[in-house]
Amino acid sequence: MSRVLVVTEQNGGVLHKMSLETLAAGQSLGEELTVAVMGSGAEAAAQALAGFKASKVVVMDHPALGVYTASASVAALAWLIAVEKPDVVLLPHTYQTRDFAPRLAARLGRPLVSDAVSVGLDEKGLIVERQLFQGKMAGTFRCDSSGPAIVTIQAGAYRADQAEAGTAPVSIVTPELGELGPSAVPGEPYRESARTVDLSAAERIVAAGRGIKEEGNLEIVKELAEALGAELAASRPICDNGWLGMERQVGSSGQTVAPKLYVAVGISGAIQHIVGMKGSKCIVAINRDPEAPIFESADYGIVGDLFDVVPAIVKELKG
Amino acid sequence: MKILVAVKQVASRDSALKPAADGRWIDESDLTYEINEPDAYALESGLQLKEQHGGEVVVVAAGPARVSSSIREALAKGADRAIHIEQDGLDAWDSLSLARLLAAAARSESPDVVLTGLQSDDAGRGETGVMMAELLGMAHATIAMKIDVEGGVLKVKRELEGGWFQDLNLPMPALLAVQSGINKLRYATLMGIKKARTKEVKVMTAADLGVEAAPLAILERLALPVKKKQGEMIEGTPKEQAARLIEKLRFEARAI
C-alpha cells in the first residue's frame, strides 16, 4: 500500500495544464492519493480538483503562500509531508517546481528525480524513467524507499484526459511554516514586449535550430518558409544568439504552436522544444544526425545536410 | 565580492553516445569533453560581476583528472583560482550527494554569490545548484536572465513560463542558477592562457571534504531510448528527398 501526494500548480484559481497530467500519474500509482494545492486562488482550483478520483484535496492556506516564493513553498510542503507521510510526492515539472523541488528534497534529505517520463512501483519500491543527454539516452532510476521520494513529471508524459473523474473531499489547512530563512523577494510578473508575431495562429511554420551554424545561413531557412507560405520560427539557441527575435521562439520558454505543418530544420529535438510543437498536425524533420530525438516526433524525416536538402525543397516547390 | 562558480565538465555536445557495457553510464572511450554550456554562461556572469564590482572569481569543479582541462580554460578566461574536487565515479552519485560535495567546498570559501548553470547537458537534472543553496542556507533564484548588484542586494531578472519574466531582489549571500544565452561568452586570450598556468588550483578529494556518496536515487540502467513514434524516413539524393517530401505533403498529409 503506497501513499501518494500530488502537488498541483495553479495561478489565480486556474490549474496549470500539467497539474492534471501529474494527477493522472498519481492515480496510476496509488491507492491512497492526496492532492495538494496552494497559493492565492487555491480554493477555486481545489473545487476543480474535487471532481477527480482521490482520497482528498488539501488546500494549504497561509498569507506567506499568496505570491510564490521557494522558501514558503518548501516550508509548507515539508510540513505537509511530515503530516501526510507519503511514500511518493509527485509534482508537475514546471519552471516553478524546478525552482523549489530540489530545495525541498535537500531539506528533507530525500531523493529527487526530475522531469520523469514515467513512474511505477514494483516489490522493491519506486522506479522512475527519465531522459538524459538531452533526450539521447533513457535512464531508469530506483529511489530509496525508507521515506518519501520526490518526482517531477515531464509535460505530456501523462495525459490530462486520463485523469479519472470522481469526488474528493476538500479540506483547508494552515501549515506551520516556522522561520523561513533568507529568501528572494519577488516582483510582479511582466511580459517583455507586445508580441508582434502570433505563431500560434500560423497554419505552417518553418523552424531553424542550431544546425544552421551561422546567422547568414538563416536565409536558406527563410527561403523555405517563403516558398511554403510559412512563418519563420526557431529553437532557443537561435534566439539566444539574437539571430531571431524571442517572439519567434518555440518551446517551453517561448510559444506553444500546433500548425498544420511544422518543418524543423537543424533542430535536434530537446524536450524543451518538443513540448512547444508536438501538437502540430504534420511534422517534418531535417537533420544530419540520424539519432536526433526530433525524428521520434516527426511524420516525415530526412537525414541529410540541410544545406543541400533545404535548397532542393525550395527548388522543387518553385519548379 | 567573492564569487564562486560551480562548473561541470560534460561530454561535448556533438558526441556520438552509446551506453557503457555495464549499462550504468555512457561509454566514455573516445569522447571529448567541454565545459557544460550553461556553466560557461554562469562563469561569464561571474567574470562580468567581478569587472563591475571588484572581487574574486573562484571556480569549483568536481570530477576525474580530465576535469583539469576545463578548470584551466576557466582560469584562462579570467577566473582567479580554482578548487578541483578530484573524484572518480561521480556519475553514480545522485544530485543531493553532489550538492553536499560542492557545498562542502563552497562553505570553506564563504562566497557572497554562488553561480551555477541551470542544468547540465549530460544528466540534465537542474537540481544540484538549488540543493546547494539549501545546504548553504542561502536564498536562491533559478533561470536567471540578468544579474545586477545594487546596495548589497542582488537584482535578478528571472524567466517564467511562456514569455513572462519577474524581477527578484536577493539578500547576499545567494545562489543563482543561470540560463544559457544571458551574455556573450568570451574567448580565452593568449595572455590569459599563459597566466592560467600560474594560477592556484587546490586539489581535494571527497574524503578531504568529509563527504561520502550516499545516493538515494540510483541510475540502474542507461540505454538508448526506445523509439516511440517512427515516422517515415525519406531516402535518396537531396533532389529525390525533396521531390518525395513535397509529394507526401501535397497528397498524403495534405499540409500544403
Per CATH, the class of chain B reads Alpha Beta
| Tally of structural domains of chain B | 1
Main sheet: strands, sense, barrel of chain B: 9 strands, mixed
Number of helices of chain A: 9
* Alpha-carbon Rg of chain A, integer: 22 Å
Which sequence of strands runs across the widest sheet of chain B?
9-8-7-10-6-1-4-5-11
Strand content of chain A: 25-35%
- Sequence of secondary-structure elements of chain B: EEEHEHEHEHEEEEHEEEH
Kindly describe this structure.
The complex is a heterodimer of chains A (319) and B (256). Chain A has 319 residues and is an alpha/beta fold. Chain A contains 9 helices and 18 strands. In chain A, the strands form 3 sheets. Chain A has a 9-stranded mixed sheet with strand order 9-8-7-10-6-1-4-5-11, sandwiched between helices. Chain A starts with a strand and ends with a helix. In chain B, helix 2 (68-77) packs across helix 5 (190-196) and helix 3 packs across helix 4 (128-136). Chain B has one domain (2-204): Rossmann fold. Chain B has 256 residues and is of the alpha/beta class. Chain B has helices at 37-53, 68-77, 95-107, 128-136, 190-196, 238-252; strands at 2-6, 9-11, 33-35, 56-63, 81-86, 113-117, 139-150, 153-159, 164-171, 174-178, 201-204, 217-223, 232-233. Strand 18 of chain A pairs parallel with strand 13 (232-233) of chain B, so a sheet runs across the interface.
